[in-house]
Amino acid sequence: MNLFDQVFNSDELQSSINDTTHILKLHSAHSNKDLSNLLIQFTNCRLFYDSKIIKDDLWIRNGLIENPRKIFFEEKRQADVQIDLNGLLISPGFIDVQINGGFGRDFTIDANIDECLNEVSKGLLKYGVTAFCPTVISSDSSNYKNLLPKIRDYLNKQKSCKSSKILGLHLEGPFINKEKLGAHDINVLKTLENGLKTLEDIYGMNVNELRKFVSILTLAPELDPSNEVVKKLTDSGIVVSLGHSKANLKQGENAVLSGATFITHLFNAMLPFHHRDPHLIGLLSNFNLESHIFYGVISDGIHTHPSAINIAYKSHPNGLVLVTDAMSAMGLEDGRVHHIGNQAVQIVKDLTTKKRSAYLQGTTTLCGSVATMDDCVRNLISSTECSLVEALRCATEHPAKLLGIYPLNGGSLNYGAKANFTIIDDNINVKATFINGDLAWSCSDWSPLIKCKFIP
Question: What's the chain's Rg over C-alpha atoms?
Answer without folding.
Answer: 23
